[in-house]
Amino acid sequence: MFELRLLAPEERVEDLSDALDALEALSVSVEDADAQTDAEQALFGEPGMPPPKDGWQRSRVIALFPDEGAAREAATLLSAQDFFAGCEVVGVADVPEQDWVRLTQSQFAPVEITPEFWIVPTWHEPPTQARQTIRLDPGLAFGTGTHPTTRMCLRWIATLQPAAPARVLDYGCGSGILAIGAAKFGAVAIDAVDIDPSAVEATRLNADANAVTLNAGLPDAAQGRYDVVLANILATPLKVLAPLLCAHVAPGGSLVLAGILERQADELKNAYAPYAALEVSDAEDGWILMTARL
Ligand SMILES: C[S@@+](CC[C@H](N)C(=O)[O-])C[C@H]1O[C@@H](n2cnc3c(N)ncnc32)[C@H](O)[C@@H]1O
Q1: Yes or no: domain 2-97 corresponds to CATH 3.30.450.180
Q2: Nearest CA residue ID for atom 19, ligand 1
Q3: Looking at the domain 106-293, which fold is it?
Q4: pTM over 0.80
């Protein structure tokens, strides 16, 4: 395979990517051309959402083609377009054959939640100190343990006492990682719900792979009261869902919310004030975990 390397200002990245797709590039990736320099720009997206921009001030756009002729022809065609103004062809290079599966897998190492609790891809051996593991491979649904919001929820779950059998609701389950974590820490009756049917399917598959019994479904599968209600979504839907989520928490039960940025703490406290007194109980990389006892 051959890669065509281009430089583009931020406002040209979308047009360039669309044109490369139309020219049947096998893949198009965009990187910060100033990465690892003082001019590097951080682009943050909320969990499950794309970053707020299409590219960086100076973006490196790399398109993969099956042969050199196709890569060079794409460079010629693009250079003739009006929207190419301000862009630059850096070159065409041969990409050595690689074991792509192995390369992709090598990017997903086990993730430590606590020194004894780890998320471990199926192609890895669990670390020797792991006493509890969730086996999970990257898939279509959000939740592999690499995002701070998921990790904070899992750290909270790891404090559950195995002696107290708990009915748990995972609202916005994604991959099902929180529901599976709750099962590993003693929960006995677990409902995991999501508006996305592919997340429901992923949750079922991941639960089976972890030998965990749970009930996965669309949101109306959540019924009655639970000892623990977990929801890692985003601040705006969490505010809308406040009465519904709180109505699912049993008296004396716990509400655990994530997907909230530090600066959103007061908005969330106010939205939940009629039902629960939310407190910030963990923080990581600008994200917070908010919990309440009802
Ligand atoms: C950030 S992911 C969290 C996944 C997983 N629970 C975790 O902690 O990694 C949020 C999930 O919530 C789901 N979701 C978003 N809005 C929802 C809503 N109103 N009701 C139920 N699920 C929702 C999304 O489809 C997505 O799978």
Answers
A1: no
A2: 237
A3: Rossmann fold (3.40.50)
A4: no
